[in-house]
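Task card 7
Instruction: Convert sequence to structure tokens.
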Amino acid sequence: MNCPKCGSKMSLGWMMPGKNCNLEWAPGHWQFPLPRKGKVVLKPAPPRDTPLDFAEYPAYLCAVCKVVIFEYE
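Output:
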């Protein structure tokens, strides 16, 4: 995949959230722990091999632009 920002080749890897939480996108900052207004819950991580494995999401990284892209649905 090429970066939509600069056109450089992106590297496929894994993005990992902290602890075993799902990632969320929200339009504003500092809304924790209250429910985030306008939030989008990102897709659950693929199944893990053991309960001790961290959730991992396939993601593309552009080292030039510092952009990460992943699908949420």
